[in-house]
Design brief:
InterPro entries: Aldolase_TIM, Radical_SAM_PqqE_MftC-like, rSAM, rSAM_sf. This protein is of the alpha/beta class. It is built from 14 helices and 16 strands. 56% of the residues are buried. The structure holds iron/sulfur cluster.
Length: 429
């Protein structure tokens, strides 16, 4: 039976420059772990990615926390954990291409404590995206807001990651900086931005708090991007590219996020975008299928909804990328229903769940005790929907081979490690 040594922990290691032994493993830098009935959840900050790890991998995580050697039988799974940046290693990290499940899983396991909470730094935004998921909340909350109340509610939500979002966080740098300083340390942080504003003054705070930057870009075709994400005064595509350039110079871990709609879900266009991202040095890409939330729930959003074949198109994209071993991590979120899967704290500190049919419903607020907040999350959030959102659940039914196992590790391996990898992660239909 697996020994659980901590409930939640953050271990910063693996960046010391010392040679790393996989027989005496340690967690990699910026990795957070949490015990779960199936083993562990691991969040890798550098990739902005969650992995569910079964009881076999859990033995390695336990050993890493206790600083004790692993048994020889666990070395193969330790290598898998090292390849995905969970366990520290000298070299040999691999791109995960949609892999979220490590070990013996038939499906995404349900999770009854939140993984992610989205926190509004502000309800203001200079863009008018045609599908804006937050439009209803922004209209409801206007220009007011209090980030201390947002932080208070976020602290009561037992999520591993807080996404600082809005609105556009760059529209109110003062609030964004304050929210970062309030939440840093307690949770891993991600900053969502469209690049519509000046990122530069925020860079020191992002670096100090090791914030992962997520930049919205729907297409490298500037005209198409700006049609989907129109800015009031400037091109949103230009702002996004400027943000990516600054992040690269500052060495910030960065993801590009793309909302997949009927306007950009073409198979070839997505492949071109992937290739353009790689050429631009982007190493993490998350694709969100358009969900009928906010503006997208209304008649204007209906025309943008991707068709029924889009999940398969996205699974194909991931599968091709895995087979070609392309240097880009890809994650896909659900594409059709919000499915009570997302938690959002508005700019006044109220906690909302995006409900299937009723839009955003308030479930808790600032000052509510943590046990009540967790009970509200459990009452309103779908354990399978929430887990699926962050663990590539929407493409699992398309058999992209997104479970990494150690079936034949240890046998013949090519010099670049590719042979072994393909046996671990077997893309198939
Ligand atoms: S940038 Fe975000 S908040 Fe602003 S309009 Fe677009 S989707 Fe809505």
């Amino acid at each position: 039976m697996t020994t659980k040594v901590v409930q939640d922990s953050r271990v910063a290691a693996g960046a010391t420059g010392e040679p790393v032994s996989l027989t005496r493993p340690r967690l990699a830098a910026d990795v957070r772990i949490r015990t779960e009935p199936f083993g562990y959840l691991a969040y890798v900050g550098d990739r902005d990615h969650f992995f569910a790890i079964d009881h076999v991998g859990a033995r390695v995580i336990d050993a890493a926390q206790l600083a004790i050697p692993i048994a020889a039988r666990d070395e193969p799974i330790a290598r898998v954990l090292a390849r995905y940046g969970i366990v520290a290693a000298d070299a040999g990290q691999a791109y995960h291409h949609g892999v979220s499940l490590i070990g013996d899983f038939d499906a995404v396991p349900p999770i009854d404590r939140p993984l992610v909470v989205n926190c509004f730094a502000t309800a203001e935004c200079p863009l008018r995206c045609r599908y804006c998921y937050a439009d209803d909340l922004m209209r409801r909350e206007g220009k007011g807001g209090d980030v201390d109340l947002v932080a208070q509610t976020a602290e009561a939500v037992p999520a591993m990651v807080a996404v600082i979002t809005g609105g556009e966080p760059l529209a109110r740098i003062d609030r964004t900086e304050r929210l970062i300083s309030r939440l840093a340390g307690g949770k891993a942080l991600v900053l969502d931005t469209s690049g519509a504003g000046d990122l530069e003054p925020l860079l020191p705070a992002l670096q100090d708090a090791r914030v992962h930057l997520r930049v919205s870009l729907d297409s490298f075709d500037r005209a198409l991007n700006d049609r989907l994400r129109p800015g009031r005064t400037r091109s949103s595509g230009k702002g996004a590219r400027a943000a990516l350039g600054l992040a690269r110079t500052a060495g910030l871990p960065t993801t590009v996020q793309t909302v997949v709609t009927a306007a950009n879900d073409d198979r070839d266009a997505l492949r071109r975008m992937r290739d353009d991202l790689m050429a631009a040095g982007v190493r993490n890409w998350v694709l969100h299928g358009l969900a009928p939330a906010g503006k997208a729930a209304g008649p204007a959003g209906r025309a943008l909804r991707p068709d029924a074949s889009t999940p398969e198109t996205l699974a194909d994209l991931v599968r091709d990328s895995a087979m070609a071993d392309l240097p880009i991590n890809i994650r896909v979120t659900a594409n059709d229903r919000p499915g009570n899967s997302a938690l959002i704290i508005g700019s006044t500190g109220d906690l909302y769940v995006e409900h299937d049919r009723r839009g955003k419903i308030r479930v808790a607020g600032p000052g509510d005790p943590a046990d009540q907040v967790l009970a509200a999350c459990r009452r309103h959030v779908s354990p399978a929907g929430h887990a699926g959102r962050y663990l590539n659940g929407s493409i699992q039914p398309y058999g992209s081979g997104l479970v990494a196992k150690t079936l034949t590790v240890g046998s013949v391996e090519s010099s670049d490690g590719r042979g072994r990898r393909e046996r671990e992660q077997t893309p198939g239909r």
